[in-house]
Amino acid sequence: MLHINNLTSSIGEKTILSNIEVSFEDGKVYAIMGPNGSGKSTLAASIMGHPLYTLSDKSKIVFNGTEIHDEETHVRAKRGIFLSFQSPLTLSGVNVFQLLRVALDGAIEPLELKNKLKKTAAQLKVKEELLSRSLNDGFSGGEKKKMEILQAAIVEPSFLMLDEIDTGVDVDSLKTIAEFLTTMKNKNRTIVVITHYNRILKYLIPDEVLVIKDGKLATKGSAELAQKIESEGYSWIK
Questions:
Q1: Which of 18, 65, 210, 217 lies at 20 to 30 Å from 38 by C-alpha?
Q2: How far apart are CA 198 and CA 213, in angstroms?
């Protein structure tokens, strides 16, 4: 479980989030929604410990009973927290196998890692040839997003945050991604999806929808809340 208490996050003198309090339980799917610039990505980055953001002295992030708000990003990652890139980076000359060998630091033998990559790629319907190419070099939007999830599946985080995983993804790929994330959820992992739209939530049903507006947690509810936002927008939320 991850619990956030009184989180206020700033960049320089500008406060982005104010007094956020929310809990994420194991084995559940959460959707974080809100207008552009409302602070959705800032919340994920603050949980991950991005150095660009400064938390107030009263801010607390507790993960599995341990306070982590003062820990560096790589320490949080080792604890099992993962954040996908909103715009996945291209790594010229480095393929996903090479990247994961470094990330895992020998935790998985090379042959086992290769086999696991191939199996997971097949489940995500990722072409095997992409595994040997420079990461994200010339990949389509859907291929890039799938590669982010593939990396997460290999690393096996217990708390997975996906920032706009549905952007630039066709319907078939969206369904494949949703099905795969559901299997991860069923392994008692927490899935947090940051999105503007209800598209992916039609296939990956959230246990709870959180709405960030003007830097605050404006409201929360069930999957029906996402459906209402799709039809009515955010103007009715105060």
A1: 65
A2: 17
